[in-house]
Design goal:
By secondary structure, the chain is of the alpha/beta class. It has a single domain, classed as Alpha-Beta Barrel (TIM Barrel), CATH 3.20.20. 58% of the residues lie in helices and 11% in strands. An 8-stranded parallel β-sheet has the order 1-8-7-6-5-4-3-2. β7, α14 and β8 form a beta-alpha-beta unit. It is globular, with a radius of gyration of 21 Å. The two termini are 34 Å apart.
Length: 393
C-alpha cells in the first residue's frame, strides 16, 4: 500500500504560515517534560487564583486543541475542515464536575450537539463522557455492586434517564452517538448502561457506540462476549477503538490497592491488542461498525488494507477513522484526500473548564513515545517545504 501519511502539503493545507509556526512552537514546548510539569502547575495556580490568563491560554494551547468556547464558536472550524473532507465530532470537554446541575448542563449540551449533527453533514457523530452525566464514585459503587442508599438509587436513576434521553434522541434523529471510555474502575457500570442502550437502539444498525480502550488486556474478551450477546439478542455493535488515555492513573491505583494492573505489559502488546480488535470487527462488519480512534499510522494502514482486501468501499459508513483536533493532521487530511471517512474530535467549552482536558493532552503528548517528535518533524518538513518554494519563486 502506498504510504500517504508523509504528505505534509495535504496535512497542513489549512494552516497559514503563522499557524504552522505556532503549532511548531507549541509542540517544542510540549516536548520538554519538565516544562510541561512546571507549566501545568503554574496554570493550575493561576486559574485557582483567578488570575487573568484566559487570553494567553486561548491564544496558545486552547486554540490549537479546541474548536471554541461554545458549539456555535466551533462552526468556523467545522466548515473549514470539511472543505478538505474532514468531518467533526463536537466534544463538550468540561471534565471533573460533580454536581447535579452541572450534569444537567452537560445533558443539554449533548442534546444540542445531536441536533447540530442532524442538521450538518460535516458533523456525523455526537459524543459524551459517562462521568459528564453522573458522579465517578457512583459509577464505581454500581460497578462493584456495593449497596446504595436511597439517595444514591435516586441519583443513579437520574444518570440512567440522562443516558436514555440522549440515546433515544440520537436514534430518533438518526445520529450516531459515541460514548467515551474512562478509568477501568468505573467502566463496568458504564459498559452495562451502554449495552442496555445498544439493545434498545441498535436494532437496525449501530447508533450507540461504546469505547474499548485496548491498552487493557481484558478488552478482547469483553468484545467477544458482547458479540455473543448481540447475536443472541439481535442488536448491532458500534465500537470506538482507542489505545487509552489513563495509563499512569491505572498503574498507580492498581499498585496502591494491590491488584494486577489492567494495562497490557508493553506498548507492543497494546498495539497487537488494538490490531486484533480491528481485525475481529472487520470479520464481523455485517453486524458491527468501527470508529478507529487512532494516531498510529501502522494501525491506520492495516485498516485501510482490510477494507481493500474485503472489497469494502473507502467511504463505507460502518468504518470511520478518528483523530483529535490539533494532532495527527498527516493522518486525518491524507485519509480524507484519499476518500476515507475521517472525523476529528473537536473539543469545546469555557477556557477554564476545558483546562483539565488540555492538561491531559499536553501530558499525553509528553508521555507517548514518538508522538511529539513526529508532530515536530512533520511541521518542520512543511515549514522547510514552504520556505524552499518561496526561495524558488
Amino acid at each position: 500500500m502506498d504510504k500517504i501519511f508523509n504528505n505534509t502539503q495535504v496535512a497542513f493545507s489549512l494552516k497559514s504560515d503563522t499557524e504552522l509556526d505556532r503549532a511548531y512552537f507549541l509542540f517544542k514546548m510540549i516536548a520538554n517534560e519538565p516544562l510541561v510539569r512546571i507549566g501545568t502547575a503554574v496554570t493550575n495556580f493561576a486559574l485557582k487564583a483567578h488570575l487573568p490568563v484566559d487570553g494567553l491560554i486561548r491564544a496558545t494551547v486552547f486554540d490549537h486543541f479546541c474548536g471554541g468556547i461554545n458549539e456555535n464558536d466551533c462552526l468556523t472550524v467545522v466548515d473549514k475542515m470539511y472543505t478538505k473532507g474532514v468531518s467533526s465530532v463536537l466534544d463538550y470537554s468540561v471534565e471533573g464536575k460533580e454536581e447535579e446541575a452541572q450534569f444537567d448542563v452537560a445533558l443539554e449540551m449533548t442534546l444540542k450537539t445531536v441536533e447540530f449533527a442532524k442538521e450538518r453533514i460535516a458533523i456525523p457523530f455526537a459524543v459524551f463522557k459517562p462521568t459528564g452525566l453522573g458522579r465517578m464514585d457512583l459509577y464505581v459503587k454500581i460497578g462493584e455492586k456495593q449497596p446504595l442508599s436511597n439517595d444514591e438509587k435516586e441519583e443513579w436513576n437520574k444518570v440512567k434517564e440522562r443516558f436514555e434521553l440522549i440515546c433515544k434522541t440520537a436514534h430518533q434523529k438518526d445520529v450516531a452517538l459515541l460514548i467515551d471510555g474512562e478509568e477501568s474502575w468505573m467502566q463496568d457500570a458504564a459498559d452495562n448502561l451502554v449495552e442496555e442502550m445498544m439493545r434498545k437502539y441498535n436494532k437496525e444498525k449501530a447508533i450507540v457506540f461504546n469505547t474499548l480502550q485496548m491498552y487493557r488486556w481484558d478488552r478482547m474478551d469483553y468484545l467477544k462476549s458482547l458479540h455473543e450477546r448481540a447475536i443472541k439478542e439481535g442488536f448491532f455493535i458500534g465500537m470506538k477503538l482507542v489505545r487509552g488515555a489513563y495509563m499512569e492513573k491505572e498503574h498507580k491505583r492498581a499498585n496502591e490497592k494491590g491488584y494486577p494492573t489492567p494495562i497490557c505489559a508493553s506498548k507492543q502488546a497494546t498495539d497487537d491488542n488494538y490490531n486484533v480488535a480491528v481485525d475481529y470487527m472487520m470479520k464481523h462488519i455485517d453486524k458491527m461498525a468501527i470508529f478507529a480512534g487512532t494516531h498510529n499510522e501502522e494501525s491506520s494502514y492495516k485498516l485501510m488494507e482490510m477494507q481493500i482486501a474485503n472489497g469494502i468501499s473507502k467511504n463505507d459508513n460502518r468504518i470511520w477513522f478518528g483523530q483529535l483536533y490539533g494532532m495527527s493532521d498527516n493522518i486525518s487530511y491524507n485519509l480524507a484526500e484519499n476518500g476515507y471517512n475521517v472525523a476529528k474530535y473537536l473539543p469545546f467549552g469555557p477556557v477554564r473548564d476545558v483546562m483539565p482536558y488540555l492538561i491531559r493532552r499536553a501530558e499525553e503528548n509528553t508521555s507517548v513515545a514518538g508522538q511529539t517528535s513526529r508532530e515536530l518533524n512533520l511541521l518542520k518538513t512543511e515549514r522547510d517545504r514552504r520556505k524552499g518554494k518561496q526561495a524558488i519563486i
